[in-house]
């Protein structure tokens, strides 16, 4: 459209230019004719011609337009058309879309609601397949058996050391032992109650304890006041408090570390495990920890291997308590190493910071022995 308008404008301009050229040509001819005819007259009356030139000058413009008209009429040329102003092209705007106000909307019937009764449910049998939680699920560890350890010969043992370690279930790395509802102490107490575990009063596993005796060692006595009808204190008496499994937050394990020359490896074997009970006075002052009973670890393995535990924070699934102990998936602190005097670290170093340093020293000594076991010097 713009090209067509532009072409029309060019044509109109060419026509207008041609008309002006013709008008100028006719005017020139007429002026020449008048100049040629009046030359003798001007020569004859010089002053008269000179005086008349001023009068002619006043109507120069009018004479020019008239001569141009006469020249055009005499030559028969068509006067140029008047120039027309073409409006500027307007920008193209999309036509407005009609607004759907829903006035002409067609209601769609509720086909589903109308056809509910038309479906024949009697033709589809009930699916009684046993549901599964996920596409793959490991079997429970019920009935699982621990793998046996090879027999050790004292003649093939080298670098023997016995250690006592403490496991604090309040530590974030040991929280798997303190999962609510599935704590290790509750599992052990249930095993003792069911007769699946044997408790011993000493760490040498010589004297057995009954479940009633074990519960008696966990109960604390508290002194309460005796009041009369007027609310006055007339005396005191001692009562036994019920055992709360959540009060046990520490365990102690006894283990042997030795080098087996036949297998060519350093072996760490847990011998026994014992919960630690906090002893407090009647006023609530902590006076230390005691061992209510000891368990032989080999006798516990069958029950521990059948108990599945889960710790999502450490990505531990389908694992048992036995696996946790065997794979050393726990954090511990050394309390004592075998010595002739039978002293614990806290007996030699009352300062807590010094106890930690001594425990770390023993740990580094063991790791250094393992690292240098296969190191040869030339």
State the main characteristics.
35% helix; 12 strands; 378 residues; 11 helices; elongated; six-stranded antiparallel β-sheet; two-stranded antiparallel sheet
Walk me through what this model shows:
This protein has 378 residues and is an alpha+beta fold. It has a domain at 156-371. The protein has helices at residues 2-37, 39-44, 46-58, 60-75, 111-114, 184-193, 211-218, 297-305, 321-326, 345-348, 352-371, and strands at 157-168, 199-200, 208-209, 221-227, 233-240, 250-260, 265-280, 286-290, 295-296, 308-311, 316-320, 333-337. Strands 1, 6, 7, 8, 9 and 12 form a 6-stranded antiparallel beta sheet that branches. The longest helix has 36 residues, at 2-37. The chain starts with a helix and ends in a 7-residue tail after the last helix.
Instruction: Supply Rg.
Output: 59 Å
Order of helices and strands: HHHHHEHEEHEEEEEEHEEHEHH
Strand count, sense and barrel status of the largest sheet are:
6 strands, antiparallel
Distance between the termini: 100 Å
């Amino acid at each position: 459209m713009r090209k067509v308008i532009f072409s029309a404008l060019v044509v109109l301009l060419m026509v207008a230019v041609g008309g002006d050229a013709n008008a100028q040509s006719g005017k020139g001819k007429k002026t020449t004719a008048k100049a040629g005819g009046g030359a003798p007259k001007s020569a004859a009356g010089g002053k008269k011609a000179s005086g008349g030139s001023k009068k002619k000058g006043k109507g120069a413009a009018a004479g020019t337009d008239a001569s141009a008209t006469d020249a055009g009429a005499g030559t028969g040329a068509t006067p140029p058309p008047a120039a027309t102003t073409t409006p500027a092209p307007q920008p193209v705007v999309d036509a407005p879309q009609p607004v759907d106000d829903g006035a002409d909307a067609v209601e769609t019937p509720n086909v589903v609601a109308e056809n509910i009764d038309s479906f024949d449910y009697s033709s589809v049998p009930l699916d009684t397949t046993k549901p599964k939680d996920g596409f793959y699920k490991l079997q429970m560890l019920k009935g699982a058996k621990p793998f046996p350890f090879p027999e050790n010969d004292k003649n093939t043992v080298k670098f023997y050391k016995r250690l006592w370690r403490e496991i604090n279930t309040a530590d974030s790395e040991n929280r798997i032992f303190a999962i609510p509802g599935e704590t290790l102490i509750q599992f052990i107490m249930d095993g003792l109650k069911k007769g699946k575990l044997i408790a011993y009063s000493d760490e040498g596993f010589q004297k057995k304890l009954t479940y009633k005796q074990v519960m008696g060692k966990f109960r604390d006595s508290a002194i309460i006041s005796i009041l009369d009808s007027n609310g006055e204190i007339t005396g005191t008496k001692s009562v036994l408090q019920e055992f709360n499994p959540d009060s046990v937050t520490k365990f102690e394990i006894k283990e042997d570390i030795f080098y087996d020359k036949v297998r060519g490896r350093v072996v760490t074997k847990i011998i026994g495990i014992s919960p630690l009970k906090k002893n407090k006075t009647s006023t609530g002052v902590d006076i230390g920890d005691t061992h209510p009973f000891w368990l032989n670890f080999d006798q516990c393995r069958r029950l521990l291997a059948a108990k599945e535990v889960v710790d999502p924070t450490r990505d531990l699934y389908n694992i048992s308590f036995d696996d946790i102990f065997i794979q050393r998936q726990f954090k511990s602190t050394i309390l004592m190493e075998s010595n002739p005097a039978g002293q614990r670290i806290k007996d030699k170093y009352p300062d807590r910071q010094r106890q930690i340093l001594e425990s770390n020293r023993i740990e580094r000594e063991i790791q250094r022995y393992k690292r240098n076991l296969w190191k040869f010097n030339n």
